[in-house]
Amino acid sequence: MRLLSHNYQGLPPPDSAPIFTKHVFPDPSAELVHEYLPSMPHLAQTYPHAALGTAYAQMNRTTERIDLHIEGHKLHSLRERVMGHLKGTGVQLSIQDCLTAYLVTALNRCLGDPIHEITNAASYRHLPLPFVDGNVVGNAIYIVRIIPTRLSKGSLSLCDVAVAIRSTLERCRTSEYVEWWMCVASHIMLAAANEDRSLFFSTPLGRLSVNSNTA
C-alpha cells in the first residue's frame, strides 16, 4: 500500500521492490501439531461454509461496537508510569503492552466473566530469521497466546499484566517458535480449504483478542 500510495503521488518508492516468492513451510508432525495447536485457538475449529451465517449472527447478538479515543500524550504517560515501577529490571514495555494491560484490568473490574487470556497479533516481517524476507508481499503475522498467571478479577496489577504480555511476546519470537507455529498454522488452514470448510475468528468469553502492533 505504501508503494502504491507513493507511485500515485509521483514519489520514489519508499521501500525495496516487493517480491512474491514466499517460503514454503514443511508439513508438521502430529506431535508438533499437538504441541502448537493450543497456541492458536482461532484455528482450532473449522466450520462448514453453510454454518458461518448462523455463527456470525449469534456472535453479533452479544457484540457491541465501542469507539475509544486516547490521546497520544496520555498513552506515552501511561507507559512512563508503568515503566517507573520496573526500574532496574531491564524490562522494556511498548505502548501497546501498557494499553492492553490497562484495558484488561479496567474490564476485569466490571465484567461478570473476567478476561483470563489474551491473544495478540505479532509481526515477524522484520525479525532476523532465515526464512523471512521483509519485502515479501502479504501479511506477515502470527498470533501469540498470553495467559498471565492468576489473570482474574483484581488478581493482577496493570504492571503485572503488561510484563506478562511482553515476556510472552519476546519468548515467542525465536526462529524455532515462529517457524513451527507457521508450519502448523499453514497445515491447518490448508486442511480446512481442502475439506471445503472455513475458519471462524470468534472471541469467546474470557479472551481479549488484540490486533495491533503499536510500538
What do you see in this structure?
By secondary structure, this protein is of the alpha+beta class. The protein has a single domain (29-57, 72-210), classed as Chloramphenicol acetyltransferase-like domain (Chloramphenicol Acetyltransferase, 2-Layer Sandwich), CATH 3.30.559.10. The chain is built from 7 helices and 5 strands. The strands form 2 sheets. The protein has a 3-stranded mixed β-sheet with strand order 3-2-5. Helix 5 (95-108) crosses helix 6 (158-171). The longest helix is centred in the C-terminal third of the chain and has 20 residues, at 175-194. It is globular and about 45 Å long. It starts with a helix and ends in a 5-residue tail after the last strand. InterPro entries: CAT-like_dom_sf (IPR023213).
Helices and strands: which structural class? alpha+beta
Estimate the strand proportion: 5-15%
The total beta strand count reads 5
- Kindly report the name of the CATH homologous superfamily: Chloramphenicol acetyltransferase-like domain
The gross shape turns out to be globular
Count, helices: 7
Unreliable stretches covering 5 or more consecutive residues: none
Order of helices and strands: HHEHHHEEHHEE
* Major beta sheet summary: 3 strands, mixed
Strand order of the largest sheet: 3-2-5
Distance separating the two termini: 20 Å
